[in-house]
Design goal:
heterodimer, A: alpha+beta, 6-stranded antiparallel sheet, 11 helices, B: mainly alpha, 27 helices, extended, disordered N terminus, zinc (chain A), Znf_SWIM (chain A), SWIM zinc finger domain-containing protein (chain A), metal-binding (chain A), zinc-finger (chain A)
Chain lengths: ~450, ~550
């Protein structure tokens, strides 16, 4: 073991790659060939010079605690192939004894250290409190008007009956959604848009539509009485309506295991959302870190599955205490050597049920399930308790479902026997995201 | 009652009976106001509150939404697991070891590269990056030599690869092993794996007649082919006996496939059965039986064909048969020639092709193959080409290196002047009957004499990795082509082969060629840079192959 901490596996390094091309290009730079002056520091950084096509080699530095990257190459990919190659080299062979960083690397590392030491809120300028309060009031008023209009719309829907919706098309709902955007309530807009798609999504749609309409109604009503709600629930309602989180959340320091990371692209293709699920190894608390990428660009934050980060997680108020931001990190990330303990199907549903108390609009709750046996089926898949007769269905279509490829991977890992699976457990069933083979602590991210 | 998804009209998520349903429609709290079960709520919502009979205050849309919200959250909070369906039989254990970790990761990389890599190369220029797709077969072959099983997580990707590329199928399925077949039984996309030659389940003990008989009667086609192979390996004469038990009731295409499976390990033990098959109802079956018999020089059919052929060809000249009689027909001679070919030449070719090559020595007064081939037999009548082509087919069919050597002639002679055939495809087949070393030597000599433009097919039949002399001949020829100033993509086929087939230890020697050389004065513009790139890719691929093979070595 070198002083840069436990080295990552090549898989974990490659998980950082922004796209397939960089993954391949990085793979080719992962041998000693093009590199010179490689080294690393005790505080968790590696650097090296990589020979390119030009006369000057590229200068590449990686801060493993981030991870964060700096390279003198012109690539706009992040991390670039040189950073990936350097990490692969480090993962395969290490970079020797820790040493002093050369000037070109030391400067950037020092800047980063200084930035990290600065308290989080300090960057914001002086606050115009009075102005902020007035702006907040104006926005609350606009949302209030939007909510009232939406309630009217829902009442009309129920008065006329859902039966007509099958042929109504969703243009009318699009229009309502646009009104909610105007009312500065993007959370409501999203739900309204979703509602409009239900009549076309197959058998059982009236029941689903009634559920969604009722939950939207519940959100409207909650907003109208938000001042009378307990703080946490009020924060949840504000989040759900689409207001940015306000106020400082709780900071929790722990060793955070990365359980899953996956991207989804918005229907218009303009925004990539990356979801990263973590769990505190000591406290057992789950955390969801979101990051976003504009069109054609992957989100900047990448945390490979199976790594453990010693860090402070700052939880946002509301939303069942799931949403968090990654705060200060205290050590380089290292692979986890154990399979996390799982719970049975009953306990998984109970955990989701309990979370609904804090956030009735919650679709699912992160759960490590296991040992369970995947049961493939033409009509649908199940994950069954290893000993009992209970099972959770796996949603195959609609929001939150994943490709069947990942399910077959899960079946292949299990071979008909019990496995441990991490995933999202909700009212639609259990969506598996990561699995551990019976005889290995290395997690497999299901594609 | 194990339907997994929400059924028509039932509440969403009915996979878990909501607690309320057992309470028989009892009021569910304040939000309810007259609405009972979820079904009733959905019914009311579908119809619309305006049309609801007996309206009243309970019938307002708001009350309906309130009730539905309570119901929804309560149902979600009270979800219980569904009943488990029967689980799949556990996959049989695969006793083979998994490959070392690094090798497993490499396989994942090669399988992932499968989809993307092929599409970009439309323009002929391939850049300097190795083509991962092309290395997958080598990885699979090397893993098979080490006796590994596939890492479980990669079995689905391996099955997908096998589905897309039939050339990979046998090796990919062998690596996927019992886990792969277990998966294939559950996923229709992978059904092909169950039909594959490797056979699905476990074969019975071939010494247990009742077990053999049962599988032979009831098994899937692939299982029966595998069983037949196992029985033959154990006792050659038992296989025809087994075949004969059901022969009359097999479908023609199955009969053909069974016959075809006898090709491997064909022996005189199979002769009586094949002889009987000459009278089969199906013409294809008859032709295949005749072909197999003619590959057995001691067979009666080969003897009959020899007699006919010897009557037509001798030192005195060539006299093709005047007619195709019943005996010839029965021995598999096809009467009607393809369009554009003369009847008699067509019959002659078939007779000579099926006659044992050994019969010619005596007929030509003790001469060896090379001397016979060199004789100006029948040049006057113009039958030479027909005769030599038939000898070529016979040499390939009977796997006779002496005759192949004679028909190939010296490698340095221009292909058009070769004694047997000018066709590179047929020459490649002849080469395959030569011992490995001699084959490589012959092709190396050919490359040195004629360059690379015609060598592609011949290189394709050489054993990988290429022997030293062959590799050097190819690299030298590439270097010469570069100096001549042409573009490397004229040689992209050979270059690709070299990437896959050169011994990885050649990488060091090649390094010098990767530097961009000065353009020769009459070179095509930019060619030097493209060559440097092509050689870079060659070296990179060789290094990758070396790494790949060393990763597979057991830790």
């Amino acid at each position: 073991m070198t002083e840069q901490g436990v080295r990552w596996t090549a898989e974990q390094v490659l998980a950082l790659a922004p796209d397939d091309a960089s993954r391949k290009a990085g793979g080719r730079l992962g041998g000693a060939g093009p590199w010179s002056q490689i080294g690393g520091s005790a505080s968790g950084s590696v650097w090296g010079l990589c020979k390119g096509s030009g006369s000057n080699p590229y200068r590449t530095v990686v801060d493993l605690t981030g991870p964060a990257y700096k390279c003198s190459c012109p690539s706009r990919k992040f991390p670039c192939k040189h950073a990936l190659g350097l990490l692969l080299l480090w993962s395969a062979e290490g970079v020797g004894e820790p040493g002093e960083a050369p000037d070109w690397a030391a400067q950037w590392l020092a800047d980063r250290a200084a930035k990290a030491a600065r308290p989080a809120g300090a960057a914001a300028g002086p606050v115009d409190e009075e102005g902020a309060r007035r702006r907040a009031e104006r926005r609350a008023a606009r949302i209030g008007a939007g909510v009232t209009e939406l309630e009217q719309r829902l009442a009309d829907l129920l008065r006329g009956g859902l039966a007509g919706q099958e042929h109504a098309g969703y243009a009318a709902w699009e229009e309502t959604a646009a009104r909610m955007v105007d009312a500065q309530a993007p959370g409501l807009a999203g739900r309204v848009r979703e509602l409009g798609t239900i009549p076309s999504c197959g058998p059982g749609w009236p029941a689903r539509m009634l559920e969604e309409a009722a939950l939207l109604h519940l959100l409207d009503r909650a907003w109208m009485g938000v001042t009378g709600l307990p703080d946490q629930l009020a924060a949840t309602v504000r989040n759900r309506v689409g207001l940015p989180a306000s106020g400082e959340g709780e900071a929790v320091r722990d060793r955070w295991l990365v359980l899953a990371q996956y991207d989804s692209v918005s229907p218009d293709g303009r925004l990539t959302t990356r979801r990263i699920w973590l769990r505190g190894l000591a406290g057992g608390r789950p955390a969801l870190v979101l990051d976003f990428g504009p069109p054609g660009r992957p989100p900047g934050l990448a945390l490979p599955v199976g790594l453990v980060l010693e860090a402070e997680m700052r939880f946002r108020p509301g939303s069942a205490g799931l949403r968090a931001d990654l705060g200060e990190r205290f050590a380089a990330a290292a692979p986890c050597t154990e399979v996390p303990a799982g719970v049975g199907t009953q306990a998984a549903l109970e955990a989701y049920g309990a979370a609904l108390r804090d956030d009735p609009w919650l679709e699912s709750w992160p759960v490590v399930l296991g040992p369970v046996v995947p049961i493939p089926g033409e009509l649908g898949w199940q994950l069954a308790d290893a000993e009992g007769t209970s099972a959770l269905p796996v949603p195959l279509t609609g929001a939150g479902s994943r490709s069947r490829g990942g399910l077959w991977q899960l079946a292949a890992l299990s071979g008909g026997g019990p496995v441990t699976v991490f995933g999202e457990c909700g009212h639609r069933g259990f969506t598996p995201l990561t699995a551990w083979q019976p005889d290995s602590s290395e997690p497999v991210a299901l594609s | 009652m194990d339907s997994p998804g929400p059924a028509e009209g039932a509440g969403p998520g009915h996979w878990t009976p909501p607690r309320t349903s057992s309470e028989g429609g009892a009021p569910m709290g304040e939000g309810d106001e007259g609405y009972g079960e979820w079904q009733e709520l959905v019914g009311a919502a579908l119809l619309g509150t305006d049309r609801r009979r007996g309206g009243g205050p309970a019938g307002s849309p708001e009350a309906l939404l309130d009730a539905a919200a309570v119901h929804t959250v309560r149902r979600r909070a009270g979800l219980r697991p569904a009943g488990a369906r029967p689980r799949p039989e556990p996959a049989p254990r695969d006793p083979r070891p998994a490959p070392p970790e690094a090798a497993g990761r490499r396989l994942a990389q090669l399988l992932a590269g499968r989809t993307g890599a092929g599409s970009g190369g439309g323009g002929g220029r391939r850049g300097s990056a190795p083509d991962l797709t092309e290395l997958l077969p080598q990885w699979l072959a090397a893993a098979a030599r080490h006796g590994y099983r596939a890492p479980a997580a990669l079995v689905p990707a391996l099955l997908d690869a096998a589905r897309a590329r039939t050339d990979l199928r046998p090796q990919a399925l062998a690596l996927a092993g019992t886990r792969g077949l277990w998966l294939a039984r559950m996923n229709p996309d992978w059904r092909f794996a169950l039909r594959g030659g490797a056979g699905g389940g476990e074969l019975p003990d071939v010494t247990d007649p009742s077990a053999v008989e049962r599988l032979w009667e009831e098994g899937l086609f692939a299982e029966r082919v595998a069983l037949l192979g196992a029985v033959r390996a154990h006792e050659p004469a038992a296989a025809p006996r087994l075949l004969a038990t059901t022969w009359g009731s097999e479908r023609a295409e199955d009969r053909l496939m069974f016959l075809d499976s006898l090709r491997v390990g064909l022996s005189l033990e199979d002769e009586p059965f094949l002889e009987a098959a000459l009278g089969d109802r199906s013409r294809n079956v008859r032709a295949t039986a005749a072909e197999l018999l003619s590959a057995l020089p001691q067979s009666a059919l080969a003897g009959r064909m020899a007699e006919r052929a010897l009557a037509c060809v001798g030192p005195e000249g060539v006299a093709p048969p005047a007619e195709c009689d019943g005996g010839m027909l029965r021995d598999g001679v096809v009467k009607r020639p393809p369009a554009g070919r003369g009847e008699r030449a067509w019959w002659l070719g078939q007779l000579v092709e099926a006659a044992p090559l050994s019969c010619w020595r005596e007929r030509f007064g003790g001469l060896g193959p090379a001397e016979i081939v060199a004789l100006p037999v029948a040049t006057a009548e113009g039958w030479t080409e027909e005769l030599h082509a038939a000898w070529c087919r016979a040499a390939v069919r009977q796997r006779d290196p002496d005759w192949s050597r004679a028909l190939l002639g010296p490698a340095s002679a221009p292909p058009a002047a070769g004694p047997g055939t000018a066709s590179l495809a047929e020459r490649a087949k002849l080469l395959e009957t030569l011992p490995d070393g001699e084959r490589a030597e012959w092709v190396a000599e050919f490359v040195r004499a004629h360059g690379l433009s015609e060598a592609f097919q011949l290189l394709g039949v050489c054993v990988v990795p290429w022997a030293g002399a062959l590799g050097r001949a190819v690299v030298d020829a590439l270097d010469i082509a570069r100096e001549a100033g042409s573009y490397p993509w004229s040689f992209s086929g050979v270059m690709g082969l070299a990437e896959r087939c050169l011994d990885p230890s050649e990488a060091g020697r090649l390094e010098a060629l990767t530097a961009a050389a000065e353009e020769p004065p009459d070179a095509s513009p930019g060619a030097a840079a493209y060559w440097a790139e092509a050689f870079q890719r060659l070296v990179a691929t060789l290094r990758l192959r070396a790494a790949m093979l060393s990763e597979l070595a057991p830790a």
